[in-house]
Amino acid sequence: MTAASAPSRLSWTLVVPLLGLVTLVLTWGRDLGPVIVALAALVLAGTVLAAVHHAEVIALRVGEPYGSLVLAVAVTVIEVALIVTLMISGGPESATLARDTVFAAVMITTNGIIGLSLLLGALKYGVTLFNSEGSGAALATVATLTTLSLVFPTFTTSQQGPEFTAPQLAFAALASLALYVMFVLTQTVRHRDFFLPLTPEGDVVETDEHAPRPSGREAGTSLALLLVALVAVVGLAKVESPAIEAAVAAAGFPHSFVGVVIALLVLLPETIAAGRAALRGRIQTSLNLGFGSAMASIGLTIPVIAITSVWLDGPLLLGLGSTQMVLFAITVVVSVLTVVPGRATRLQGGVHLVLLAAFLFLATNP
């Protein structure tokens, strides 16, 4: 984890969440001009960074791998809130928003976060070391969750099109939640040592000596500010949703690219945290962040979307297209070859980043 401490009285990590809440109150339910929209977007970005900072403080208090779990859940709460708010206000065009956002999150985490972390770590240390048992279990869970929730809808026949029936959606939601809970219990209780960073000699690192452990009071303060920041992010996302969709349309990109924008927005702080961990030689922490965010994106988002779909008009299209499934398949194959040896070089990082670039290019030029 990055070095983080509880905010001082005049720290930006205290001011920005409160500023986000004030901005939300002043802009909610109003027609906004371009200048106000731009200012609200800046506040939104700052509030996301502040939210992840406070999650890091809490993470330093509870230690690894709990810290990565806190960050992943915090980011996923933001992601789910953005998806739901845009689906409620988006009309028929939002039918594929959940699919596009969740798949974008999977590709960004498994190729972007993982690839960048491996590249940065290898550039500094030559060869990166991590625990193949923990990372392999995480990758297997991500692949299973993605297949159950995003691949199967394309091939089921009870409902026409890439859509689940109500019983199928309920099964996918329950299975996703069950798998995620099973993984969390494995990561934090039964086999915690599989998810701890390794030294260059291959020894397990129990504590992060690069950052002091915050006190209980500091962690409690950050928990309160994290909740404030999340409320502000959810509300400001709703305020900014028309501008996001308008910008995507003005650029001539497909409407599905809105989901990619959402995923890029909420995963940027996670990416920064993983990169910093990689530069400190904590590649396992980076992998925990990447795979953990992918799992949380599916394991928590799909159940929430399943419940929300009861109140939504129109279809909920979750099935991936052929190009997306090919990208997912090659990502799984490459990830297996990366994870199994328990060590990687800059080449593996570069391959993952090229796959991310291919995903982003095809998302704008399908």
Describe this structure in words.
Its main location: membrane. It comes from Saccharothrix lopnurensis. There is one protein chain. The protein has 366 residues and is an all-alpha fold. It has one domain (12-364): Up-down Bundle (A middle domain of Talin 1). It contains 12 helices and 2 strands. The chain has a two-stranded antiparallel ribbon. The chain is globular, with a radius of gyration of 20 Å. The relative contact order is 0.22. The model is unreliable at 1-8 (pLDDT under 50).
Tell me the layout of helices and strands.
Blueprint: H1 12-27, H2 34-62, H3 66-90, H4 97-125, E1 128-129, H5 132-155, H6 166-190, H7 216-250, H8 257-279, H9 283-299, H10 301-308, H11 322-339, E2 343-344, H12 346-364
Antiparallel strand pairs: 1-2
Helix pairs in contact: 1-2, 1-7, 2-3, 2-7, 2-8, 3-7, 3-8, 3-9, 3-10, 4-8, 4-9, 4-11, 4-12, 5-6, 5-9, 5-11, 6-9, 6-10, 8-9, 11-12
